[in-house]
Specification:
The chain is α+β, with helices and mostly antiparallel strands and 548 residues long. The protein has four domains: 125 residues, Udp-n-acetylmuramoylalanyl-d-glutamate--2,6- Diaminopimelate Ligase, Chain: A, domain 1 (3-Layer(aba) Sandwich), CATH 3.40.1390; 111 residues, Dynein light chain 2a, cytoplasmic (Beta-Lactamase, 2-Layer Sandwich); 136 residues, Alpha-Beta Plaits; 97 residues, no CATH class. Helix content is 48%, strand content 16%. The protein contains 19 helices and 17 strands. The strands form four sheets. A five-stranded mixed β-sheet has the order 2-7-6-5-4. Helix 3 links the parallel strand 5 and strand 6. Helix 3 packs parallel to helix 4. The protein is elongated and about 115 Å long.
């Protein structure tokens, strides 16, 4: 990626064309860039050259023609320093052809070897190449300054991802993609010559692309890929379409863009933390009820209006958004909050978003003509594809006095909602969807419910503890209640024969002193089981893991 004219381009310059150049070996390396030009007859030229330097010589200082090992060693030295090639003027030492050993050594290393059929001034060749190299370096410097100024301005303006990526698209003149850690495209801006299909099969193609270090070029896809985030906590990658090996300028564009996106992410998180702190204060005040100072204006209402949360003639719905536990890596609450804020903004739905006890509490404010529940459903539909969370909603209220009720109810619904998502579960859990679980959730940790569970199920739990895993009467009772119409299906769910299952049912009746065919007994036991499970799910959520 070194700046410079390639040997192929140099041979097309006027001074070279007049010298009748011919590439006699190492033609494959003619695309190497030339960093600078040296003209010398010293045999120890390797000490003078640096990577990318082009050697001009008449060969007078090289080993004799019959010293094949000496000629090969001379070429080895050029290859070791990374020379861009060797140009030999015929006439002074060699008449019409170079020694075979010299040609063979250059071909073996892929080092371009050029003969000049006409006498020429090396100074003219060096000057022409040098001027072109300097011109390109100046151009690169100007472009680097343009890149620097562009991203500095974006950083000072705290530009968002869209502005940053549009700048990348403009500077790279190619397609730009931001993907997440799971290789799913998050943003895409097509290049000017993009015929479409750049994103075809993206996740599968992207998973096969690995680059060493922070930034690398994948020649197969023609992608310049830059990591977003640290090596330990990468959250995605920036991909720029680059069919040819990228220049230093394009690499700088990619890395400055990655830094700008990281800075925006940091600012966004800081702004989100401050915003949630303010929203928590407002929500707490709203739940406490209107506060008036004599006959003066409502201070809380005024602060809400200034924060962009209208409270006059509105419909309010309280939400709780809770990361699921026990389902792998829990969702990052900061990330969830940012997604909720973006979703509400996209729906033009005013919302207070704050964190309370590892939950997100959200209060939305819908206009009088809007369907508040529908807006909540649409909000959840924008959040759930990105995070494994439970979204619970309270009932809509049309006056500020009901805000505490709808927010509290959302928390109770979240407590009652199942922690493991099932296929039939709604996106938004509401009290009406939870039936018996909802009723028990409203009762919360009422001591009378706990005593009821102990009275109904305590003897079975004591039996199972004493008996170990040999009978598991609670499991048999659960199977019976989940398959009320078929004891055969209940037995099959436990992988038991009908005889073994009937034996366990008989034991349950003995332990409880109750008839399992009595509808009242079954209802009572079913309620006790649901209350027991609900209590354990709540404990799991508080402890961050399954209770024992």
């Amino acid at each position: 990626m070194t700046t410079g004219v390639t040997l192929r381009e140099a041979l097309a310059l006027p001074a070279f064309r007049r010298a009748a150049p011919e590439v006699v070996a190492g033609a494959a390396g003619a695309a190497r860039p030339i960093r600078w030009v040296h003209a010398t007859e010293r045999p120890d030229v390797g000490e003078l050259l640096r990577e990318g330097d082009l050697l001009l010589t008449m060969g007078t200082g090289l080993p004799p023609d019959d010293d094949e090992s000496g000629l090969a060693a001379f070429v080895d030295e050029l290859a070791d320093v990374g020379s861009a090639g060797m140009v030999v003027e015929l006439g002074r030492r060699w008449g019409s052809a170079l020694p075979d050993a010299l040609v063979a050594a250059c071909e073996r290393h892929g080092l371009p070897l050029v003969v000049l059929g006409r006498e020429t001034r090396f100074a003219a060749l060096a000057q022409e190449i040098g001027e072109r190299v300097v011109d390109q370096q100046v151009t690169e410097l100007r472009e680097a300054q343009r890149v620097h100024e562009t991203f500095t301005e974006l950083s000072f303006g705290q530009a968002g991802p869209v502005e940053i990526l549009r700048a990348v698209q403009r500077l790279s003149d190619g397609p730009v993609v931001v993907e997440n850690a799971q290789h799913r495209p998050l943003d895409y801006f097509a290049g000017p010559d993009d015929p479409g299909g750049f994103l075809d099969g993206w996740p599968a193609r992207s998973r096969r692309v690995e680059v060493a270090g922070r930034t690398g070029w994948d020649a197969t896809n023609g992608w310049l890929v830059t990591r977003l985030g640290t090596a330990d906590q990468a959250w995605g990658r920036l991909v720029i379409g680059s069919p040819e090996a990228p220049s230093q300028r394009l690499v700088a564009v990619a890395e400055r863009a990655a830094a700008a996106l990281a800075l925006h992410r940091l600012h966004d998180r800081d702004r989100g933390t401050l915003m949630r702190r303010t929203h928590l204060e407002l929500l707490t005040a709203l739940m406490a009820g209107p506060v008036r100072d004599g006959a003066g204006p409502d201070e809380v209402g005024r602060r809400c209006e200034l924060a962009g949360f209208p409270v006059r003639r509105r419909t309010f719905v309280g939400l709780v958004v809770r990361p699921r536990v026990g389902t792998g890596t829990p969702a990052d609450l900061d990330e969830v909050a940012a997604t909720v804020v973006r979703a509400a903004h996209g729906l033009r739905l005013p919302a207070l978003v704050c964190e309370v006890d590892r939950d997100l509490r959200v209060l939305v404010s819908a206009g009088p003509a809007a369907d508040a529940d529908d807006l909540v459903d649409r909000l959840a539909a924008r959040v759930l594809p990105h995070h494994d969370v439970v979204v619970a909603a309270g009932r809509a209220v049309t006056d500020r006095g009901g805000i505490a009720r709808t927010v509290t109810e959302a928390g109770q619904v979240a407590d009652a909602a199942p922690q493991v998502r099932r296929g039939q579960d709604p996106d938004v859990h509401r009290l009406a969807d939870l039936h018996l679980r909802g009723l028990l959730a409203l009762l919360g940790e009422d001591e009378r419910v706990r005593l009821f569970v102990e009275r109904e199920l305590g003897p079975l739990e004591a039996h199972d503890r004493a008996d170990g895993s040999r009978t598991e009467l609670l499991a048999a009772l659960r199977a019976l209640l989940l398959h009320p119409a078929s004891k055969t299906e209940a037995a099959a769910s436990l992988h038991l024969s009908r005889a073994a299952f009937y034996d366990r049912l008989a034991r349950i009746e003995t332990v409880l002193g109750a008839d399992l065919d009595d509808p009242d007994v079954r209802v009572s036991l079913h309620v006790a089981l649901v209350a027991r499970d609900l209590g354990r799910e709540t404990a799991d959520g508080l402890s961050g893991g399954p209770s024992k």
